[in-house]
Amino acid sequence: MKRLVLLVLFLFLAGTTYFAGGIYYGWIGKLEQVGSIQGKMIPSKIISQRTEAQIKSSKKIGVKEPKQILFGDLHVHTTFSTDAFLWTLPMLNGSGSAPMADACDYARYCSGIDFWATTDHAEASTPRKWEQTKDLVRQCSFASDNEESTDVVSFIGFEWTQVGALPSEHYGHKNVIFKDLEDKKVAKRPIAASGVAVNALRNNAANTSNSFQLLGFTDLKNFQEYANLQTFLKELREVPFCDANLPSNELPLDCFETAEDPGELIRRLEEQSLSPLIIPHGSSWGFYTPPTTAWDKQLKKEMRPESFPIIEVMSGHGNSEEYRSYRQVIGEIDNPICPMPSENFLPSCWRAGQIIESRCLNSGLDKEECSFRAEKARQVTANLGVGFHLAVPGEKTEDYLNSGQCQDCFLPAFNHNPTTSVQYGLAITNFDEEEPVNFNWGFISASDNHRARAGTGYKPVDRKTTTEAAGARSEFYRGLLLPKPGPEEANILPLTREEILASNAGFQLTELERQQSFWTQGGLAAVHSEGRNRNAIWDAMERKEIYGTSGPRILLWFDQVSDQEINPMGSTISLSNNPKFNVKAVGSFKQKPGCEDFVMEGLPREKIDTLCGGECYNPSSERLKITRIEVVKITPQISPDEDVSDLIQDPWLVLPCDGENGCEVEFEDPSFIENGRQSIYYVRAIQEATDTINGDNLRCKYDSEGNCIEVNPCWGDYRVDSEDACLSKEEHRAWSSPIYVSKNIN
After folding, report:
1. Strand pairing partners for 701?
2. CB 255 within 8 A of CB 131
3. How far is CA 692 from CA 112, 444, 466, 724, in A?
4. ∠ at Cα 677 (673, 682), nearest 5°?
5. d(CA 593, CA 384)
6. 421: Cβ contacts below 8 Å, ≥ 6 apart
């Protein structure tokens, strides 16, 4: 009997050891795959009907020879990206794998867009994933017999996801999109951003995945999902780093390549004889952007600013367009100062001081002591950057009210950073070179969806899949995933930036919960295309005859006009007279519930329910109204001491839009020749207000003086009912690409 007990005990221990080893080394997990495309090619009759409806609307508004306006999404993630994989886990309310094949089906049948690109994070890529990515996009792009389909045009891409711990090291994220599908015309491997992003995945991945693996024991029904995460990260860690001393074209296919900054990224692509579109995005998203970060350093010659011809104005991260004069902190990096509140802005460091002061007074201490503690709190938190909140003992998300947020921006990015906004980037000049250097961007928008759903903004539905809302599925899992806040105290913790950076805290530095209220469904890219094919779409993007929308398919034309010629949006021109402009805009179609009949015939019913949520792009014959046209004028710096606030006129003009079929307006700049300096003009077509997910983000309750005194965040977790879409009425819009006008001196 004793031997039997010992044998059973031995077998139990051996089995437990094997099982634990299997978890740690990824033996029992499964590798994520691209999946299988289920949707058929859209019938040509449907495409013809869409084209005819658009041409009809274009001609009604006076467009004589309309190009096709095609809508697409050039920023889509699948569970080949680490963050996307994490969000599929059941404990985070995930709905399971989001393979790349779903993105193809979604674009074709759910959102009904015309083109899309897959842009999974290079930092999580492996040789296997890259090969499968290229193959899947080719499958999505070809109908039969290697003849490319034109119902949905698909592009191969990746995201270079750079994050710097300090403002001097932060360059932000860039999408790299390739025109063609052949191996020799795309990168041999995605190029990752060295530094924080790679270190977090490769150096800290084991600890992260083990933590999630242990949490998997609390969810045995779905344990396989957590085991798969370990295998996901194991595959990544096993790819050796490339030799940084070799040119990119001489590296083997099976290594992990990195670039430190935008200049190196471009150099490595050029070494492979490649010239893709490189598109900055999420530029003002303060979730990870260190305060005081600015565009200025990316105008330096070595950063190759001319290689970024297009910028993403808006995505699921919110709107990065608008400049404001406020700052999160001011002063030098070694001596940051917390600024005082101003109209429509309450600095988060200032709010931290208010929290400490209130606690101090409530504990019965005198006003002078509490004022001293508040000032100390502001000093400490100003120095900590995005991790400021870690110094506030017993913090709760609701304590910060609407601090750190742009309160008068349209669907703003979380902790919107004005000096990395699009408007700021257009207004600054680099005077270090013989000739002044400026950015010359065309505008697009995108979804940045992480659930393989391309073009999510067609209807305000299914909030937890059409936005990035993610959080614990119960209070139990929230307690396991987030650090315990501890007791509230009336003193700030004396943390330093150096201590936080040395702790490798990663995303614990960020306000993971508060930012959930700022996820939007994202926008769309629109191109004025000469045809419905890959070359025509690419040509439109290269000439910047493109625009972005906040989701709806608004039709927009913006031209500089004269008796001799018409210069469309995106043009760079010289004039010897004052410029005149013409704008035409037509609202998007109102949507009907459900899906069109052809969807039911082309995609399995189960897939319509699980992927599309039972709701597709389903236009009626009635369009929403465009209420007004807003004109923005920017005059870039002509000397380094010019204040950017004086150079951005937003709005410069507001023109009413009247007409059942859209509207047409004209305007002229009567002071252009007199002022004699380069001017940048772009327009926003503003549509009548419609229901919008997270439009009111923090849902503030205000006092009689207009101060936010209470918030009701739209959580990503169990605290918001699944039926609550967090809706408010918002005025969606389209942003034209700018027209860049210089005075002709000949």
Report:
1. 710
2. no
3. 19, 20, 12, 12
4. 90
5. 48
6. 283, 284, 320, 321, 322, 323, 324
* Cross-strand bridge partners of residue 603: none
CB contact at 8 A, 547 and 553:
no
For residue 12, give Cα distances in angstroms to 5, 227, 605.
10, 21, 46
**Helix-strand-coil percent breakdown of the chain, rounded to 5?**
35, 20, 45
Cβ 260 vs Cβ 194: under 8 Å: yes
Structural contact between residues 487 and 394, judged by C-beta atoms closer than 8 angstroms: yes
Rounded Cα distance between 125 and 122, Å, is 5
User: CB–CB of 702/710 below 8 Å?
Assistant: no
As given in the structure block, the two tokens for residue 733 are 């819009």
- Within 8 A by CB and 6+ apart from 49, the residues are none
pLDDT band of 11, cuts 50, 70, 90: very low
For residue range 105-132, what is the model confidence (pLDDT) as tens digits? 999 999 999 999 999 999 999 999 999 9
How far from the centroid of its chain's Cα atoms is residue 684's Cα? 20
What totals of helices (H) and strands (E) does the chain contain, helices first?
A: 19, 32
Cis-peptide into 651, omega within 30 deg = yes
Neighbours of 697 (CB within 10 A): 25
Beta bridge partners of 278: 176
CB contact at 8 A, 294 and 502: no
- pTM score, whole prediction: 0.94
What pairs with residue 157 in β-bridges?
A: 177
Report the run of H or E that residue 559 belongs to, with start and end: strand 555-561
Residue 656 has pLDDT above 80, yes or no: yes
Residue 23: is its pLDDT beyond 80?
Answer: no
| Tens of pLDDT, residues 173-229 | 999 999 999 999 999 999 999 987 777 666 655 555 566 667 778 888 888 888 999
Q: How far apart are CA 428 and CA 405, in angstroms?
A: 23
Any idea what the Cα angle at residue 673 is, between residues 668 and 679, rounded to 5°?
70
